[in-house]
Here is the input.
Amino acid sequence: MLTTATHLDDRGQAMTDGTAADPPPELDGPDGAALARELMRRMQRVRLFEEATIALFHAGELPAMVHLSIGQEAAVVGACLATRTSDYMTGNHRSHGHPIAKGARLDALMAELLGKATGVCGGKGGSMHLADFSVGSLGESGIVGSAIPVATGAGLAAQVRGTGQVALCFFGDGAASEGVLHESMNMAGLWDLPVVYFCENNGFAVSVTTEESLSVPDVAMRAAGYGMPGVTVDGQDVLAVYCATREAVERARRGEGPSLVEAKTYRFHEHAYGLVLPRPYRDQAVVDSWFDTVDPITLFHDRLLAERVLTAGELQALRDEVGAEVEAAVEFARRSPYPPPEAAWTDVYAPGHDPQEVSA
Amino acid sequence: MLTTATHLDDRGQAMTDGTAADPPPELDGPDGAALARELMRRMQRVRLFEEATIALFHAGELPAMVHLSIGQEAAVVGACLATRTSDYMTGNHRSHGHPIAKGARLDALMAELLGKATGVCGGKGGSMHLADFSVGSLGESGIVGSAIPVATGAGLAAQVRGTGQVALCFFGDGAASEGVLHESMNMAGLWDLPVVYFCENNGFAVSVTTEESLSVPDVAMRAAGYGMPGVTVDGQDVLAVYCATREAVERARRGEGPSLVEAKTYRFHEHAYGLVLPRPYRDQAVVDSWFDTVDPITLFHDRLLAERVLTAGELQALRDEVGAEVEAAVEFARRSPYPPPEAAWTDVYAPGHDPQEVSA
Amino acid sequence: MSAPAARRKPARAQQLGFLQAINRAQHEEMTRDGSVVLMGQDLRANVFGAAAGALEAFGPSRVRDLPLAEAGSIGVAAGAAMAGLRPIVDLTVASFVFGAMDQFVSQLAKARYMFGGQATLPVVVRAALYYQGGTAGHHADRPYPMFMNVPGLKIIVPSTAPDLLGLLKSAIRDDNPVLCFEDANLWGRKGRGPAMPEDVEHLVPLGSAAVRRPGSDVTIVGIGLGSWLAQQAAEELAADGVDAEVIDPRTLVPMDWPTILASVRRTGRCVVVDPANRTCSAASEIAARVVEDCFDALRGPVVRVTTDDTHVPFSPALEKQIYPTQAKVVAAVRRALA
Amino acid sequence: MSAPAARRKPARAQQLGFLQAINRAQHEEMTRDGSVVLMGQDLRANVFGAAAGALEAFGPSRVRDLPLAEAGSIGVAAGAAMAGLRPIVDLTVASFVFGAMDQFVSQLAKARYMFGGQATLPVVVRAALYYQGGTAGHHADRPYPMFMNVPGLKIIVPSTAPDLLGLLKSAIRDDNPVLCFEDANLWGRKGRGPAMPEDVEHLVPLGSAAVRRPGSDVTIVGIGLGSWLAQQAAEELAADGVDAEVIDPRTLVPMDWPTILASVRRTGRCVVVDPANRTCSAASEIAARVVEDCFDALRGPVVRVTTDDTHVPFSPALEKQIYPTQAKVVAAVRRALA
Ligand SMILES: Cc1ncc(C[n+]2csc(CCOP(=O)(O)OP(=O)(O)O)c2C)c(N)n1
Ligand SMILES: Cc1ncc(C[n+]2csc(CCOP(=O)(O)OP(=O)(O)O)c2C)c(N)n1
Ligand SMILES: [Mg+2]
Ligand SMILES: [Mg+2]
Here is the structure.
């Protein structure tokens, strides 16, 4: 039994009725439609990008495993779209969704996954370590929890420099047990840093459930211990995530300090795609049912139709656009050259550094 | 202005009235008197032991600085006496009080401070790193926060081995910001470990106030984030500390898990005795007044008289006994030999290890 | 549980894999000594494959899944050891040691000394050297040299499954903290080591090197996968009439200096193959010790074959070239002989 | 603030202490560049003595007291650097680096590389080597060799106040993370260095060694306090007719190999004095590099004078003997010459 499964049942059912309703203010009018379109576009980007990586995996074209955000698109996109491109963001090993949602170009991300020279990190980072500084993405971390203070520091820089920027810090329920989260949240609370700590609580750290790793039911319950607001939202509802994060971002931008937003969500695939765990730790039938019951894209799709925000045709066109974008990204990545061998030794230091050292 | 100063004013004043009253149940009858005597004896041991170190410091006999618990005796003793000798305890750089309160012999502790072979650690640990495994004292840590998981692990061992022991974990308000506290409290909460986290909140980490280091007013407010009870007590009231800790210890011993006890207390001397800070960070006149207003020994002394638990003569005799004990300890330490030079290289590994390495 | 049954097969016929060796060492020692406990992330789901059957055999009290809290985990193991347990901590990937460094140094390594011998810390920490597999910079460290600079820790880097079995069992019985770094490139090498010993008392003592190939012209010291590269290079060189002695130290602390130094005194030449980053590597230590203690016997430079001082790049086009290879070892031997 | 006024005195007459050098480097660079910020525990109270006047001059936004959270602090500095600041973090005592090791390795050292050059991390971390003062095992580490094993970090170990001034200023201007390890035994050595330069552009480039004493018979490389011990030993040996060259590398990464190796090629002998623990020390690296690259010129063993592989004992009866001393350096030189 999954504790995280229950909180969505109401919504899920409510959705399936699917009769017409009025949109909430956020989705109302032309601005609302534009927002809806962008939320959907970015969720589709994450989904289709990752489905393409699955295909690449099965084709044997991926040099390494990938940790997919499929099922978590609403959390990732709702949070990122609540920030500006100039705002900062850091993430973790489940890494594709964050930069995509933050607005990074798909072609350079896909090329990175294949270890190509045109990759967003020149092929040196790979799937777990995407970064696109041009859209405020300061990097994902393969070391769980390790980038949490980095986002906190970006918030500090924004504060000291008075730029009005905010830093969005993604971490998982597993990472919530790491000491650096405590150290970072304490500093952020102390100094009123413009940071939004965003927990993608998908119920698992690999095979370990939140019940087995967390001494409290909700990560958000820890916010009070740092003097900051903490809220738990339905992570399958992109608008709910967007609204909760927007509130936290606005608060941060007003100089009122950090917040903790926890999105309860679902990881639809295995911890890393294709990873086989010797011992089952969750009911595959339940997991399979999630595609029907709590798919954030389907839920939003149905809602937009029901609330007449976008038409089926518009939604299909949008999906097709993204599909083409992803296909082009895959083509770009495939056609791109590998980095030259000597790239292995550059970027260890900033230009101008002379290591005076030749390898044997 | 010190926020920690206010919470005692009522008690302080209440005490100075000094008219007769009935003792609380804990101090009632022969058992109560015995408890009172032991609480007082250990507080006096800490106080007189440390006053002796001050004298040694001025005489130039101390090889290094000492971090005194003077002013914090009620917190340290109230907590330790709520445990059994067979229970475990770890502490920090403010280190003399903990093993003394836990029941360690003064002579071996004092010899350790002088770096003598008869020291409790053979002269290798020194003031900040006292340990007396014979009374459950698993060691103090010069690295702030570093021993917190050690106490947690001792609690784990007690649980796995089913011994019924409890681990008492001392840390300061400064250490409360360290990540290992979070990691440890989460594990303890998760596994219902028999650990009592005990924060000696003396308002300062060297010169940094709790307002400058903590994002919440009370450390105890963080307990809820780990699913454990948290309580803040008057750290100058040895009985209040004793009762609060006893409750936490009993809970732990019953297998119901960890607790956090925070004692608001006062550091009467400089961070390390004799340390001169270039820039003042607290009002010396206020600090000086503490000896009159919030001295835990005076407060308890007056209370015991007022409540007729012990007589002035008994209290004086007890103090004299401890004075003699401390004097003997100093004599013992002075007369003891230094360790032989080769001791510098032993105890790096357990016996039987052959490093096959001779130093140049 | 099927693993124990499998173990009953006759020794000669069976070849041991790395993960089986770990599983067997842990299982045997946990059976022998009730104070041995196993802790790690995803242990019960047996994600890394070395804990099969442990939960069923020893129960949830002695087999514990850890939350993601590396510092806390090592510190908890230290405290549990001081209070009578003998924890084995599976840190999974060696790149995760950094978060726990203070606990390694300030508690595990120092507690016994600083408390004048009162503390005993029988803790084994296992971690895989997970390089060469496209995991990029955050999973591919080989950090044992850092720990060699810290007195109080023992360090093993087994390169065959039977050695891993025997060293790990010795480590679990040792009263000191022992770090076990397992070269993940050898996980698949089932069958390349000698046949599995059937003795549950199969112990390889800590601090004893293995001479993998006797020789007279040059001493090649190879660590982890490096010992295999050294052996392959030695075969290649043999065709050219160069007779290389290959030594696998197996334990880095305490290092078996007598074996290494005696060999170099005989051969007069030394090459060290170490998958760690070059600067301040185990290879550097061995080279320094050799020139310090065997100078008169030395007839050529001591040459190190290490990973370059760069980070591990993700791209398959970049990664392999930074590590030691058979060709680099051969070239180094030629330099040492020149 | 009185410090800046004092600085106006003529250069020749003034001798600089270590703490003044730090203060001056920080003050000048914070004045020059508004993106430089100062963070540390007890900075405002100026407990360690190097931050006098900073709060008054630059305000609380740029001068921040840190809570006790070493990992968080280094990570925050890394993030702040990626977002446009140039943080100086005063970690005070080098033994406190261990708690932050993951942030040093996984973020500070690796971020630029792993993100393909997108990140720039101009962070300076200062920490004192606080040994030899009776502080015992938890405050007396000399951990720079660990960091030498991590590519991406630069490391300086200044041994004179003017060098500290010039190196620290270079470090603050450098676009890479630089770790500055200050040998606290030299804090009191005001006046032993050359006169204070008056130039606010007094920069000592990272990666350039200083020849403290030219000589022809043996090269003594001395790190931190070791460079002073080497000079004293050299004077003692001069009376015996041994002419030692003393080199202070000043920067450990990047190491000035050309200067060191050229010297050994001339003298044919080498001794390294390094206050770090022996195994995998900077001395080991230098010895390894010397035997690898200068073998033909080498006429005797490379001898290391280091701290023994033990922890730092508290007792004054025990502590001093584990460290390098002048007598040990002299003995080592005699061995190198034998
Ligand atoms: C410091 C560290 N410890 C362990 C790991 C191995 N690991 C990678 S992801 C993961 C689980 C993380 O769980 P969570 O934070 O909930 O993120 P999710 O994978 O669920 O998105 C673990 C244990 C790691 N990469 N880094
Ligand atoms: C990891 C670490 N960081 C910094 C220090 C330096 N230091 C020693 S004690 C101390 C203050 C500790 O404050 P608190 O925990 O409140 O204990 P108190 O001294 O007030 O009893 C500091 C900063 C240290 N010893 N260890
Ligand atoms: Mg998760
Ligand atoms: Mg305090």
Observations:
- The longest strand of chain A covers residues 195-201.
- Confidence is low (pLDDT under 50) at residues 1-18, 356-360 of chain A.
